[in-house]
Structures are given as structure tokens and as C-alpha cells.
Amino acid sequence: MTSLLVIVVLVLLAIALWQLTKIFDLTQVGSSSDDTQVASDNDNNIQGYIMFGFLAFIYIFTIYGLLKWGNLALHTPASEHGLLVDNLMNITWVLIFVVQFITQGLLYWFSFKNRGHKDKKALFFADSNKLEAIWSIIPSVVLACLILYGLYAWNNIMFVDKDEDVIEIELYAQQFKWTARYAGNDNVLGKANVRLIEGINTLGVDMSDPNSQDDIVVSELHIPKGKKVHFKMRSQDVLHSAYMPHFRAQMNCVPGMVTEFAFIPTYTTSEYRELPFMVEKVANINKLRAEKSVELVAKGGTALDPYTFDYLLLCNKICGASHYNMQMKVVVDTPEDYKKWLSEKTTLAQDIKAAAAAKAPAEGAEATTDSTAKDTVKAVIDTVKAAIAKVAMK
Ligand SMILES: [Cu+2]
Questions:
Q1: How far is CA 257 from each of CA 234, 237, 249, 253, 260, rounded to the nearest angstrom?
Q2: 15 by DSSP, 3-state: which?
Q3: What distance in angstroms lies between residue 318's CA and the mean position of ligand 1's atoms?
Q4: What per-residue string of b and e applies to 287-296 under the rule 16 or more CB within 10 Å gives b?
Q5: 348 in Cβ contact with 239 (< 8 Å)
Q6: Is residue 310 within 8 Å of residue 269, measured between CB atoms?
Q7: Is residue 196 packed enough to be buried (19+ CB in 10 Å), middle (13-18) or exposed (0-12)?
Q8: 229 and 263 in contact (C-beta within 8 Å)?
Q9: Could you read off the pLDDT of 335-378 as tens digits, one per residue?
Q10: Gap from CA of 171 to ligand 1 centroid (Å)
Q11: pTM (two decimals)
């Protein structure tokens, strides 16, 4: 609200200033000898230098931005293909940077060099085949190379060999949470359909499918280091996007279809926490949190918890009001820890059975409570009736 008011005030000030200059201009009518409205050589010189000033601003701000905020970009990738993605990204950035540096400079230099001058006449220049060829062929070749390299990277990343030993995991998106389903010992995910959602079977897993019997449903994702994990994504309601920035992985989750993505994690969570850049980043975040905590405590609030790094699965499509909070913790374990963690989990079939067993006695108990309540009401009514009869007899 405050910023809106500030903007309104600035706009009004600008309008006031504009009106004032108009009044000033009106007062000057007739007093100046040069009111031809045609730019003089002096005007052209000034405009030329101002343009150079703007060019300097673009260059300086770009370099300043890179130095100041460059460290906010994602650092070391935590997946095998991440190096390829980063490489592609870096090549693209360098190309854009170099080309923009040169072309902006040339643009402003030529504008300045050929600025208006009393004795200069514009040169009529129809075309130059040589120039046309240069500025068509060079960008075409560069772009073609970039696209070919991009296609090579894409095919490399998206290709999953059918015979490869991969871990099958389903990522299920819904407003506003993620759930993961492991394929179990058979490594085949059972069929699922939203129409089959019932009770604790929130993913609509088809329990009549033999492949579903050993499926495991969890709310925290664990994956082993050095093993290819093949994710199959589904969505219950709207478009979501499974985004795991540290692994350079992103794939849309589309209602009514299964999308997929596979990668090999290369750092366990604890290894990634130990990387020097991460140690520095976490220390910086905690320093800011400590400062904020002092402020909060002074106002009577509670201090902030210190931050520890965790990989995250985020939603990267604006899918509704709580979209910003749609995330799941991802833990990369050593293969041994992963096996141990998974072996401690119960299967969905067991969970459903346990829930049904828990429900049966509860229903019985409900019936008992019900009859006890009825008895109590009856006793109260009887007492009241007896009291009324007593009063009546008196
Ligand atoms: Cu979402």
C-alpha cells in the first residue's frame, strides 16, 4: 500500500513538473531569438553524449548486477546431467553477453559518429550483399550450433534405457502437496486412477493390480546417490511442475497423463551441505536470521530457527493460493542408508489393512458409546418425570 502511495505521489509530482515547464515555455515566447524548434549542432552534440552516458549505465549496471547478485544463482549441480545443463546455460550466457556488449557499443558509436551536423548530408545507401551475408550467416551458424548442442543435451537427459537398472518412483501432485510412491520389490508401479481415491488410498492406487501390493507411499522423498531414479509424475487437479533445482530437473505434472524424468544424484545431502559454497551460503543466511531474530525478540516475537540446507522438490507452476508452499523435502542417502530407510516403511496394502482393522473396533466402540448415551438420556427423562409427578402430588 505504501509503495502504491509513493508511486501515485511520484506520478503527480512528474505531472506538476511537466505543467510548470509548459508555463515556463509560454513565458519565454518572443524573448528568445532561436525558437525554430530545429535541433542545432550544439543540441545534437548534447544528445550524442547523453546516449554515451546511457551506454555506460547499461555496461556498469550489468557488471554491478553480476558482482552483487551473481552468487544467488544456482551453484554446483547435484546430478550427473546437471553439468550438461549448466554447460549449455553458460555457453548461452557468454554468447548473449559478448554479442550484446559488441552490438550495443556499435549502435551507440554509430549514432554518435553520424549525429546531425549542419554541413553533413545523409548518405543514400540502398543495400550491400556482403553486409547482408555477414549478418545473416554468422548468427545462423551460431544458433544452429547452439540448437544442435541443445538437442544433443536434451536427448541425453531424457533418454531412459528400458534395460537399465533404475528405481521407479511416482511423484503425485495435488493442491498443495507432493506425495511419492515407491514401486516396491518388483520395481513396477501398480496402476492408479483418480476414481479409485478412497480413505487413506489418496493416490487412487488400483489395489486389485498385483503390482500395487508392494507399493510404498511416503511424504518425504529419499533417493540413493549414484543410482538412476526414474520419476513418473501425475497430477490430481491442475497443472503443476515438479522442480528440483539442485538436480537441474523440471517436468510438468499434467492431469490425465503420466510425464517422466530421470536423473542420477551425485552428492548425498550431507556431502552437499559440506561443499564450501554451501557452508558459506548457510552461514550468511543464519547471520541474517540472527539479526532478524534480535529485531523479532525486541518486538516480543519468537526467534527464528537456524537454517540447515535440504534438497527440495518445489512446484514451479502457479497452481493456486498456496502454490508457494507446495514443496517436499528430498533426501539423498548413501545406497545403504536408502535401503535401510525403505525397508522400514510399510506398504500401502498393509496401511489400508491396518486402517480397516482400526476402523472396525472403533465402529463397535461408537455403537457402545451411542447406547450408553441413550441410556443416560433415558435416566434423566425418568428422573425429571418422577420429580414432576412429586410436585403434582403435592
Ligand atoms: Cu502446484
A1: 7, 12, 19, 8, 10
A2: helix
A3: 6
A4: eebeeebeee
A5: no
A6: yes
A7: middle
A8: yes
A9: 999 999 988 888 888 888 888 888 776 555 554 445 555 555 56
A10: 12
A11: 0.73
Considering the segment(s) 167-348 as one domain, its CATH architecture is Sandwich (2.60)
Q: What is the model's pLDDT at position 112?
A: 86
pLDDT band at 219 (very low <50, low <70, confident <90, very high): confident
The three cell numbers of residue 124 are: 543514400
Percent of all residues in the chain with a pLDDT value above 70, rounded to a whole number: 90
Distance (Å) from CA 174 to ligand 1 centroid: 7
Give the Å distance between the CA of 347 and the centre of ligand 1: 26
Q: How far is the CA of 197 from the centre of ligand 1 (A)?
A: 19
Q: Where are the beta strands (DSSP E) in 216-358?
A: 216-218, 221-224, 229-235, 240-244, 249-253, 259-263, 311-315, 327-333
Residue 16: what pLDDT? 96
Q: What confidence tens digit (pLDDT) does each residue in 105-161 have?
A: 999 988 888 888 888 888 888 889 999 999 999 999 999 999 999 999 999 888 887
Task: Match 500395487 to its residue by C-alpha cell.
Answer: 212
Domain ranges of the chain: 41-70+78-117+129-159, 167-348
**From the CA of 316, how far away is ligand 1's center (Å)?**
7
19-74: per-residue pLDDT in tens? 999 998 888 776 666 667 778 888 888 988 998 899 999 899 989 998 999 888 88
